[in-house]
Amino acid sequence: MDKAKYIWMNGELIPWDEAKVHVLTHTLHYGNGAIEGTKAYKTVDGRCAIFKLKEHTQRLLNSSKMTLLNVPYTLEELNDAQVKLLQENELFDGAYIRPLVYLGYGIMGLYHKDAPVEVSISAWKWGAYLGEDGLKRGIRLKISSMTRPANTSGMGKAKAVANYLNSQMAKFEAVEAGYDEALLLDDQGYIAEASGACFFMVRDAVLISPPNDNSLESITQQTIIDLANDMGIKVVRRRITREEIYIADEAFLTGTAAEVTPVREVDARIIGSGSRGEITEKLQSAYFDVVAGKNPAYIQHLTYIN
Ligand code: PMP
User: Fold this and answer.
1) Would 174 disulfide with which of 22, 26, 179, 284, CB 3.0-4.6 Å?
2) Cα(117)–Cα(240) distance, rounded to whole angstroms?
3) How far apart are CA 206 and CA 83, in angstroms?
4) The model's pTM
5) For residue 180, what is the enclosing H or E element?
């Protein structure tokens, strides 16, 4: 990975190679932590801006609350820390930002009330998550043998570290089977989300995405829905079954890292024309305009760092 100079740890900027934890760090053993994935882009005027910083930091605090992690910093402090981190690292061409709330060293055993809650924020240069080629030509999806855990267990709405075991198993299975990404069903057999992104499909010019009944409340999903509304594209949130996807006209994934990645194949069925669809391309292009500060209606969502 592309190292930066510093990592923010518990209020201080530490040299990248010195940002370490003890092997008895609670989260390493029991998996209770919360993360964010936030992105900064170089904008049209040459400055760099973090997209939807407030929303991401709020979700970090929400995820932490859900998983009983008492974060010792305010939203404003965490936002300032992210801005400062990018500035000090001179990441003015854009970066991926990874805040992490974790339980530190000092207490073992499952009852974590007295374990110290620690926070780190790292940032580095990271290219297209599903590849530049994927953004243009589309990717191949496999419906996973892993399902999202039922809402009766787990903390599906939290961007909890523990949730990524399930995602990791699904991703590995898909990639080993020759696909690019996994699509997970919920425990009822409806489409939930990909291992690290949300799912959209287009059928008869209507944009359809599942409700967040069993998926992360995705920030990019909301941006895409807003953009579709701006463009007069009809948007429907409803449950989707796998066979509907096979006959969709277009499909794509959204996420901060995945951005808007077209899907060209699902389980050996070619989707639409087998390449990036027309509506997908429009929304993808609109999304890149937004994060690059080219759409005045969305400038309010940009936090400039220089
Ligand atoms: N679902 C999962 C499981 C994810 O990890 C992500 C990436 N954060 C998403 C959906 C997309 O969320 P967002 O658009 O907020 O990045």
Assistant:
1) 179
2) 39
3) 38
4) 0.97
5) none
